[in-house]
Amino acid sequence: MPSREDILAFVADNPGRAGKREIARHFGIIGGARIHLKKMLKDLTDDGLMEKRNKRMIRPGDLPPVFVANLIARDKDGELIATPVDWDEEAGTPPKILVLTGKTKATQPGLGDRALVRLTEAEGSPEADHVARVIRVLEKRQGAILGILRKRDGSRPHYLEPIDRKQRELDIDPRELKDAEDGDLVSVQVTRSGRYGHPVASVVERFGSMNSEKAVSEIALQSHGIPHVFPAAVEAQAESAKPVEKLGKREDWRQVPLITIDPPDAKDHDDAVFAEADDDPANEGGYICYVAIADVAYYVTPGSPMDREANLRGNSVYFPDRVIPMLPERISNQLCSLREKEDKPALGVRMIFDKTGRKTGHSFHRVLMRSAAKLSYLQAQKAIGGTTDEKTETLLDGVLKPLWGAYEVLKKGREAREPLELDLPERKIKLKPDGTVDHVYVPERLDAHKLIEEFMIQANVAAAETLERKKTPLLYRIHDASTPEKLESLKDFLSTLNIKLPSSGGLRPSSFNGILAKVKDTPQANLVNEVVLRSQAQAEYAPQNIGHFGLNLRRYAHFTSPIRRYADLIVHRGLISALGLGNDGLPEGIETKLEAIGAEISAAERRAMLAERDTIDRLIALWMSDQIGATFQGRIAGVVKSGMFVRLSDSGADGFVPASTIGLDYYRYDEGSHALIGDKTGETYQLGDQVEVRLVEAAPFAGALTFELQSHGTIAGKRIRKAAPKVRRGPPKGGRGKTSPKKQGRRRSS
């Protein structure tokens, strides 16, 4: 048997390529010795010396063989240097990668671009940790600069205050203002040099007042490099597309009373559902469930301009009052959308469930359907609750009640499966007609939401099972188990609440559910849900299946949203090829590209999530900027050396309290208890504590709020009701100083 050091050395030399099989082959391990190898690999993983990713072993902090990178600089020889887009900050500083370009335009990026790269063993550079070769340029750097137009006194020209603080202010040519006014968000292009060589810029586009949602979301688009203008070739292809008017070789599902259930303001409808009790005597109490999904593959063919643009975008991006679609609106909102009372092409799945919620069979069909009705979640829920309207009155007995009957059966199967049951209310922003924030709220989660979610999960499982059975290439939606480091951190946190984390050897989603059940309906419930979420791995797309830990499913793929997710379109094409449903299925050679496509769209998904979150943070900071000095109730949502993060109870807004402003003592950070503890008084501020804060600063550009504590902490677990005696501020003699507020950084995402 090789030593632990031998195995670690082999994994280090083969990052992302060394699985158990490869290790056994390299060291000549056969027969019963494989059992000992499996134990050694588990011990190395438990000790934090290795991680398992997609059935491959890597060292913590190692890069996968294929990943998305930002090209950030050039070395002394002029070669491009990049850093990975997806990098865990806990692993330390992102590694520098020397990027080798290719001969074609698609493999020749420039500084500021984003590219898909593959690690190589080529000779490196003293300034880089790794070497990688470009597979494809994903995004070219935008030449326009985003900022706020500011007016100077007198006759001096306007200037641009850039959103990116690393950029310098720019004078604006007074002849090129494009009707922009003082305080507007604009994009500009440097056009010439002025006196003394200072650059002068022209306004390219005016987005309006910084207080509007459009302006704030524009900042997110620019700062995250999200493509949002369709090329002319893409628009032309979309406009030339013709609707499906004849049945042809499709099955006729127009008599099946499928309905769509979506948010009230939804414009694109991916999915429609119907259910009926199974009349087979052998399946008493069972149900037949139908799910019809928009047939995007009919309109978006492999290699076409729309296909290439959809691959680049990866998914649609959703802002409070604006959507950046993956596909042009003529496709997403018109031809593909399953509109009420209109004939539409779809890919349907018919699933049979027994009375316990176990799926006993399914089949896929390429169909022509006709949505019987478009309902909102609340509208459907009210009808089931006894309050019908003109539309739901006619649907109640024949459509809605059977759907809820099927949902009750599916719930039994879900409960037996025991997926991870996190309860994290989602903040929503209600906007005024002018695009400014009206209020922040948390929408109620209805059974109607859960019904659609469970129908979609089952359809996704059916798609993965069919493609796997047919040995057709596909992108799985995978979710790995938590790393030992994250589990150890969670264990430390739970210990402060006197909750024990079960042994990491056999952790299942139900193990986490037991923890969540203990804190349900307690003040710590939201906090524990968030910390458990942070301990989980990030879901992603990959052609190698490792299962979906959170849903507790052995195989899972995304099939139900091809209008807004490129992964689903690939699965649709796979089903068309595997089942002989047309000639517009998977292109030849796709299996060699799936790993790269999976990495690409996984990065696009994370990019969209960051942009959506940043927009909400900026809008809330704008909304609260006129409430400076007001006090609020909240809870401590995070503790670091330099202070603590507080989440407000009424709006869910997050802000930071610098440790230097607490004022009664010198507070040291205790990592194990997630608390700041006063040296002299023992006064403690701990994760989850309820506090009162005063808003002292709002920075809309950064989406950041700064608070000042108005309430006291606890001593020996008891709340201080009157001010503790003031002591010398600052560190005790010989102690360490506080971290500079400038280094406190942005709050960490869950």
Poorly predicted runs = 722-750
Termini separation = 41 Å
Inertia-based shape: globular
Overall average pLDDT: 86
> What oligomeric arrangement do these chains adopt?
single chain
Strand order of the largest sheet: 3-4-5-7-6
Class by alpha and beta content: alpha+beta
State Rg: 28 Å
Helix content: 25-40%
Largest sheet: 5 strands, mixed, barrel
Q: What's the tally of helices? A: 15
The overall number of domains is 6
Give the percentage of residues in beta strands.
25-35%
Record field, number of beta strands: 35
Pfam families: CSD2 (PF17876), RNB (PF00773), S1 (PF00575)
Region (Disordered): 718-750
InterPro entries: CSD2, NA-bd_OB-fold, RNase_II/R, RNase_II/R_CS, RNase_II/RNase_R, RNase_R, RNR_Ribonuclease, S1_domain
Keywords: Cytoplasm, Exonuclease, Hydrolase, Nuclease, RNA-binding
Explain what the structure shows.
The chain is of the alpha+beta class and 750 residues long. It has six domains: 55 residues, Arc Repressor Mutant, subunit A, CATH 1.10.10; 74 residues, Nucleic acid-binding proteins (OB fold (Dihydrolipoamide Acetyltransferase, E2P), Beta Barrel), CATH 2.40.50; 66 residues, OB fold (Dihydrolipoamide Acetyltransferase, E2P); 310 residues, no CATH class; 53 residues, no CATH class; 119 residues, OB fold (Dihydrolipoamide Acetyltransferase, E2P) (Beta Barrel), CATH 2.40.50. The chain contains 15 helices and 35 strands. The strands form eleven sheets. A five-stranded mixed β-barrel has the order 3-4-5-7-6. Strands 8-9-10-12-11 form a five-stranded mixed beta barrel. Strand 32 and strand 33 form a beta hairpin. Helix 11 runs antiparallel to helix 13. The chain is globular and about 75 Å long. The C terminus is likely disordered. Pfam families: CSD2 (PF17876), RNB (PF00773), S1 (PF00575). 3'-5' exoribonuclease that releases 5'-nucleoside monophosphates and is involved in maturation of structured RNAs.
